[in-house]
Write a structure and sequence with these properties.
Strand content: 15-25%
Helix content: 25-40%
Structural class: alpha/beta
CATH topology of the largest domain: Dihydrodipicolinate Reductase, domain 2
Shape: globular
CATH superfamily of the largest domain: Dihydrodipicolinate Reductase, domain 2
Radius of gyration: 20 Å
Strand order of the largest sheet: 12-11-7-10-9-8-15
Oligomer: single chain
Distance between the termini: 33 Å
CATH architecture of the largest domain: 2-Layer Sandwich
Bound molecules: nicotinamide-adenine-dinucleotide
């Protein structure tokens, strides 16, 4: 049984708390949050204890921590946790600063402790099937990957201000998806972005709509389209064109009933947002972590993967500012 301390009881911390508590091989031992009320409510819901982060890290009965705190705390908490001998699953991104993330890698390597990064989309059954079919050679050589990733509505501007910007906060999932499917970081990135959904996002120095092109050394291309707003819900599609065909993962709809009438055809909307769309992915992600720690299975999403995605996000941020292609300095 894996005894777990959860750091962070916010939106995603609540999802992870349910998953940890429900897994037959893990126990949600304790929860810490600088917001005591948030930690308390979540602890009561799952029969866990409220502790400070220091107390969780000092407790030798706790084997692992899941870091679901705000992004600007991730590297510090990863380092503190591995120094305390814990295995770590940390939410994305590793940090807002690539340099800081690389320094964190040094501490993790020295500790020898396993660290996994929460790129949950890899565990979505549809995307995993697409990747497996591609790797089985079903469409030949992958040449052009297209990722559509639109949120239903933008987060509050207070969140945007500390998020590190669209590319580090939101597109980072798509960068990881692209590196995972195409096999590593690209050679260069071009990007352009606008704030056309909410002028307040522009005033905060960020963009809410963007198009990114990733280019590999051998000419393979990835196109990513992002928006913080889609009136019909969470739009998450992946399409891979290969030398012998195409693999496409469409949206998962709220239900499968389709209405046909004289006016036309009507289907359900895509599942509303990440909590619904990736519910199965979060469970599979946690299961992979448990199996890695308890059974010695490989860590499926490494700290190196997290740094790679951040390197692409940094390059995209600079490309959008300069208007030219930027070379990616990989992990
Ligand atoms: N993988 C995903 O699908 C996904 C989805 C949402 C968020 N995230 C990531 O998860 C992280 C949290 O996002 P969220 O939406 O849950 O944010 P949130 O603001 O809802 O929750 C963050 C929580 O962390 C707490 N906190 C902040 N600093 C802390 C510290 N030093 N010690 C203990 N608690 C601390 C806050 O009080 C808050 O309750 C972010 O890094 C975000 O990028 C990932």
């Amino acid at each position: 049984m894996l005894k777990v301390g959860l750091l962070g009881a916010g939106r995603i911390g609540q999802v992870h708390a349910r998953t940890i508590a429900a897994h037959p091989r893990s126990e949600l031992h304790s929860i810490s949050d600088i917001n005591g009320e948030a930690a308390g409510t979540l602890a009561v819901a799952h029969g866990a204890e409220v502790r400070s982060t220091d107390e969780i890290l000092a407790d030798s009965a706790i084997d692992a921590v899941l870091i679901a705190t705000s992004t600007d705390t991730h590297s510090d908490l990863i380092e503190a946790a591995v120094r305390a001998g814990k295995a770590v699953l940390c939410e994305k991104p590793v940090d807002l600063s690539l340099e800081r993330a690389r320094a964190c890698r040094g501490v993790v390597q020295e500790s020898g402790k396993p660290v996994m990064i929460g790129f949950n989309r890899r565990f979505d059954p549809n995307f995993a099937k697409l990747k497996a079919a591609f790797e089985a050679g079903e469409i030949g050589k992958g040449e052009l990957l297209s990722i559509t990733s639109f949120d239903p509505a933008p987060p509050p501007v207070s969140y945007i201000k500390v998020s590190g910007g669209l590319f580090r906060d939101m597109t980072i999932h798509d960068f990881d998806m692209a590196c995972w499917i195409m096999g590593g970081a690209p050679e260069s990135v071009s990007a352009t972005g606008s704030s056309i959904v909410d002028p307040a996002i522009g005033e905060a120095g960020d963009v809410d709509t963007a198009v990114i092109v990733m280019r590999y050394a051998d000419g393979r291309l990835v196109v990513i389209k992002n928006s913080r707003r889609a009136a019909y819900g969470y739009d998450q599609r992946v399409e891979l064109l290969g030398s012998e065909g195409l693999l496409s993962a469409r949206n998962v709809l709220e239900h499968t009933v389709e209405k046909l009438s004289a006016e036309g055809a009507l289907t359900a909307k895509p599942e509303h947002f990440f909590l619904e769309r990736y519910a199965r992915a979060y469970v599979a992600e946690w299961n992979a972590f448990v199996e890695a720690i308890l059974d010695g299975a490989p860590i499926p999403v490494s700290l190196e993967d997290g740094i790679n995605a951040l390197a692409v996000a940094d390059a995209a941020t600079r490309a959008a500012q300069s208007g030219g292609a930027v070379v990616v300095q990989g992990a």
